[in-house]
Design brief:
Layout lengths: L8 H13 L4 H13 L26 H8 L2
Length: about 70
C-alpha cells in the first residue's frame, strides 16, 4: 500500500544521512519503526504471590541458596 507522509525537510535530511550511514534506506527505516510500534503487546508476566516460600514460623525461615533453588525450581 502506498501512503504519503509529510516530514519536515530537516528531519528528512537527518533520517537520510542516518540511513546512508547504516547501509539502509529511509523506506526501510520507516518500515522498521512501524513494525516496532505495531507489534503485539507482550503478555503480562505471571503474578508472583508472596510469600513464595511459606513458613510455619513467619520471619524465622533460614535457608541456604541451594535450599531456595531446590524449592523454587522443583
Amino acid at each position: 500500500m502506498r501512503t504519503t507522509l509529510d516530514i519536515p525537510d530537516e528531519t528528512y535530511r537527518q533520517v537520510k544521512v542516518f540511513a546512508a550511514q547504516h547501509g539502509t534506506t529511509v523506506r526501510q527505516l520507516v518500515l522498521d519503526g512501524l513494525a516496532i510500534v505495531a507489534r503485539p503487546a507482550p503478555k503480562p508476566a505471571k503474578k508472583f504471590v508472596l510469600p513464595a516460600i511459606k513458613s510455619s514460623r513467619p520471619g524465622s525461615l533460614n535457608l541456604t541458596n541451594e535450599q531456595i533453588d531446590e524449592i523454587a525450581f522443583s
